Amino acid sequence: MTNDQFKIQNSKFNIQNLNDRRWAMGWAVAMLALSCVPYLVAVWLAPDGWHFAGIIVNPLDGHSYLAKMRQGFDGAWRFHLPYTPEPHQGVFIYPHYLALGHLARLTGLPLVWMFHLARLAAGLALLMAAYRFILRLAPDRQTRRLAFILLLTASGLGWLGVLFGAFPIDLWIPEAFVPYSLLTNPHFPLGMALMLVILGKIGGMGDWKVGRLGDWGVGLTALGLAVVLPFGLLTVWAVLAVWLGWQTWSRRQIPLSQLRQVALTVLFGGPVIGYDYWVSVSNPAMAAWSAQNITPAPPPVDVLLGYGPLGLAALLGGWHVVRQKNRTAAEWLVVWWAVVTLGLVYLPFNLQRRLITGLHIPLVILAAVGLTRGLHGHRYQRAAIRGVVGLSALGTLAVWTLPLLGLLSPPTPASLSALFFLRQDERQALEWLDSRTGPEDVVLASPRLGIFVPEYTGARTFYGHPFETIDARNRQAQATAFFRGEIETVTPVPDFIIYGPSERALGKAKGLARHRKIFEIGETAIYEVTK
C-alpha cells in the first residue's frame, strides 16, 4: 500500500468514526430528552393544591441527595446527617453533591433544577464514554450499533416476573441498568462513565487518552470515581486484578505498563476509600448510619429475570468470545467484567448489592456480540435481534412508566404518591421556616414530611430516613406516637414542630397548647417548642 493509499483509507476510517459518533450523540440526546418526560408528566399530574417535589425514582434517597445539596448551598463542605437530631462532627464525604449545592447558590438555580441538570450532563458523559468504549472494542458497525441501542433501551422481564410473585432487579436497582440510572440521579451515570474511562485506558482500547496527563490521568479518574462512587472503584480493581492475572497466565508475561496504571489508581483512589472506611467506624454518627445501611444481594432468580433476554444473549456472546481463536484482550476484559461483578454481588458482607453497579454495560456488549457474531448466518438471527431488542425495550418502558402509576392515586398522607408531592401550604410553611432555622435546629414532623424538611429549610429533622436517621426505628416510633397523642414529648426535644394534614392523619397530638404557634397557613401550623 502506497503512502497516498494509506492516507485515503485512514481518512475514510476517520470519517466513518465521525459519522458514528454523530449517530451516537443523536441517540444519546434523544434518550436523555425522553428521560425528562416522566418528570414533566409528574408536574402535569400534580393535583390542585399540591406541588410536584421533583423526584420520581426512590424518593427517600432522591430527597436525601437534595438535602446534601442544601448543605452545600448553605456553604458547607463537610457532610452532616440531615435526618437525625443528634449533633455530630461533619465528614468529607459526598463532595459532589455539596459542590452542586454551592453551584446552585452561585447560579441562583433551585436545588432540584441543578440536580436534574447534573443528571443529564452525567448521563451524556456516560453514554458517550460507553460508545467510545464500544467503538474501540467492536470494529464492525452492526455489533457496536446494536450494543449501543441495547445500552440505551434494554431492561429485563420485571413486568412479567411480578405476575409470578418475583421482584426482578430491573424494577428497583437503578444502578444495575443504564436506562434506569439515566432517570434516577447524577452519581450513578457519572460513576459508570468514570469506570469506563479507567477500564478503557488500562484495557488498551485504542488511544484512550485522559486529557494530556497520560497515565497520571487514569489515577485522577480513579480519584474522581472514589469520591463519586467508591464501590465502583472496588469493582474496577477486582475486574482488573482477575483480568491481568489471566493475561499474565495465558501470555506467560507480566503486563508491567498496565500494572503501573493500576498502581496509580490505587495511589489516587486508595486514600479516599480508606478515609471512607475510617469514617464509617470511627465517627459515631456515621457508624450508626452504616450499621443501618444494609443492602443485601437480590435472590439469583430476581437477577435472572431482571436481565431477561439480554442476559441470555450475553451468555451466547460470552461463549462465542471464549471459543473463538482470535479473541482479543479487550474482549476478555468484557467477559471478566461480567463474571467478576456477578461474583462480587454475592460476597458475604452488608453492602453486596452496591457492587452490581455497571454490570449492564458488559452484558449489552456481550449480547450484541452473541446476536451478531454468535448467530452470524443463522436463519433466525434477524428474529432473535428483533426479539431481544423489542422485549428489552418493553422492559425499560415498563420501568420508566411504573413510577407514574404511583402518581395516579390521590396523594393522601398514607398513600405512596404523598412521597412525590407536597401540599402548597406545607411548602409555604417550609419556605417560611427556611429563613428562621439553621443547621443546628431540629424539626419534628410526620415521617412523610420529615423527608422534605432538610432540603427546604436547612434544618435537621427528628426523623426522615430509614438509614440516615440514627436509631431510625425508635425515632420513627416516637414521632408517630407523638402525633397519635400517645406521648407528649420526644427525646431529644426538637426546636420546632410542624402540624398539618400529614400529622393529623396519624391521630390527635397532645401538648401542643404549651408550645407557641409562630406560623399558620391553611391547615399547616408551626410551633416553637418551649423547653
Query: Taking Cα atoms only, what radius of gyration do you get, to the nearest Å?
Result: 25 Å
Number of domain units: 2
What's the β-strand tally?
A: 7
N-to-C SSE string, H for helix and E for strand = HEHHHHHHHHHHHHHHHEHEHHEHEHEE
Strand order of the largest sheet: 4-3-5-7-6
Helix count? Answer: 21
Low-pLDDT sequence parts: 4-13
The N- to C-terminal Cα distance equals 89 Å
Structural class: mainly alpha
Keywords:
2 domains, single chain, 531 residues, 7 strands, mainly alpha, five-stranded mixed sheet, 21 helices, 62% helix, two-stranded antiparallel ribbon
Describe the structure.
The chain is mainly alpha-helical. It has 2 domains: 3-45 and 110-400, no CATH class; 417-528, no CATH class. It is built from 21 helices and 7 strands. The protein has helices spanning 3-45, 59-73, 95-107, 111-137, 141-153, 158-161, 178-184, 187-202, 215-228, 230-251, 256-282, 284-292, 300-323, 329-345, 360-374, 381-407, 424-434, 447-450, 453-457, 472-484, 501-504, and strands at residues 50-52, 421-423, 442-444, 460-461, 496-499, 516-521, 524-528. The strands form 2 sheets. It has a 5-stranded mixed beta sheet. A two-stranded antiparallel sheet has the order 1-2. A hairpin with a 2-residue loop joins strand 6 and strand 7 (524-528). Helix 1 (3-45) runs parallel beside helix 16 (381-407), helix 3 (95-107) packs across helix 4 (111-137) and helix 13 packs antiparallel against helix 16. The longest helix has 43 residues, at 3-45. It is globular and about 80 Å long. Mean pLDDT is 93; it is low at 4-13.
